[in-house]
Task: inverse folding
């Protein structure tokens, strides 16, 4: 490049022995044009190298100066991987969206893993100790299993975005405390309030052989607690999709807390017969026809089945039928029979949740109002 420029320069000089100002300007423009495109290419390569170098460097989750850059890189990395929890999905402005993500970040240095509580198909749940702002609290730390897949990793990050930006707060919904988005040892970790008494399903199985007045009063309280939690989720425009007694946790005060909702793996089959392990006993008819069809109304149907579980003190619905038979039964108008410990008022409420047309089912707000009336009447009659 330099030799070519010198040749052109010498040819111009050889014509009359000196260079005019116009010729000098032309030479300068010509040289700039030659150097411009290589310069742009070098700048692009340097920028890419700098981004890769900064991405490898561990950024503190509490460093708000670096967070804008960190969030940008995470968004680029996850753009094709995460289809849930994005800002436009939440209806939040960019500032609020990023601020909520920042507020949910927890440093791994503040968390100490203790007892292993549960092992699932893709996750492990530990009892852990969280130390923040001079206070210490016992929490549940949910992390991926060893050997997790890329899809598991993407889903965990999607859940972190979902819970971080929703900022849910209700006594009958499991409280999300925060998350460790990136850790070399554990990967992404979600931190929830600790519920020591496990699930409503487990409690029912433990007490089904010792049903007394206290047990009956407790299961009525479960019904109300779950209804209130689901009413709150419906007000937040959140669809549970998998409501059942096994997905409702209990704390040490036996308060029921709805959990196990949020982003999940997409159903990999188009028809329930292809996937017998799916818990379709709790699914609304419209969800059985197409497994990706869920709504607040389908949650109401699932709530009715959950009520049936509670008032049967742990029986499983449709235990003697396979998937195909369940669908045929529902289409023919068959409904679960009145459970042993439900009076007519509770059973009528269940049946109203099982209307074939979704628009004919009650809302969670009307369900909660009716439950308040029933429970208060039961309390007065017991006195």
Result:
């Amino acid at each position: 490049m330099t030799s070519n420029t010198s040749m052109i320069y010498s040819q111009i000089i050889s014509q009359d022995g000196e260079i005019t100002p116009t010729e000098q300007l032309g030479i300068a423009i010509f040289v700039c044009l030659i150097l411009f495109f290589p310069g742009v290419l070098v700048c692009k390569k340097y920028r890419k190298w700098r981004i890769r170098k900064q991405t490898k460097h561990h950024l503190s989750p509490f460093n708000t100066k670096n967070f804008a850059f960190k969030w940008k890189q995470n968004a680029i990395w996850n753009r094709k991987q995460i289809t849930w929890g994005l800002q436009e999905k939440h209806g939040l402005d960019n500032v609020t969206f990023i601020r909520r993500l920042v507020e949910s970040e927890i440093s791994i240095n503040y968390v100490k893993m203790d007892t292993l509580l549960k092992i699932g198909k893709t996750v492990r749940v530990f009892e852990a100790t969280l130390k923040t702002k001079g206070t210490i609290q016992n929490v549940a730390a949910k992390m991926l299993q060893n050997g997790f897949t890329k899809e598991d990793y993407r889903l965990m990050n999607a859940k972190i975005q979902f819970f971080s930006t929703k900022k849910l707060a209700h006594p009958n919904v499991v409280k999300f405390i925060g998350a460790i988005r990136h850790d070399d040892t554990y990967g992404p970790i979600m931190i929830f309030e600790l519920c020591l008494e496990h699930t409503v399903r487990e409690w029912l199985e433990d007490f089904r052989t010792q049903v007394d007045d206290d047990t009956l009063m407790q299961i009525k309280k479960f019904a109300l607690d779950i209804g209130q939690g689901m009413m709150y989720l419906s007000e937040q425009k959140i669809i549970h999709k998998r409501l059942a007694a096994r997905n409702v946790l209990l704390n040490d005060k036996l308060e029921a807390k709805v959990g196990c909702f949020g982003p999940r793996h997409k159903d990999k089959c188009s028809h329930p017969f292809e996937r017998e392990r799916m818990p379709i006993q709790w699914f609304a008819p419209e969800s059985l026809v197409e497994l990706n069809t869920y709504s607040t109304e389908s949650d109401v149907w699932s709530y009715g089945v959950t009520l049936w579980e509670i008032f049967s003190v742990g029986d499983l619905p449709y235990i003697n039928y396979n998937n195909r038979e369940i669908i045929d039964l529902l289409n023919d108008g068959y409904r679960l029979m009145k459970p042993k410990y439900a009076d007519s008022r509770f059973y009528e409420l269940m049946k109203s949740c099982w209307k074939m047309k979704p628009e004919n089912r009650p809302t969670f707000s009307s369900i909660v109002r009716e439950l308040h009336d029933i429970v208060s009447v039961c309390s007065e009659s017991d006195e």
Remarks:
- The two ends are 100 Å apart (CA to CA).
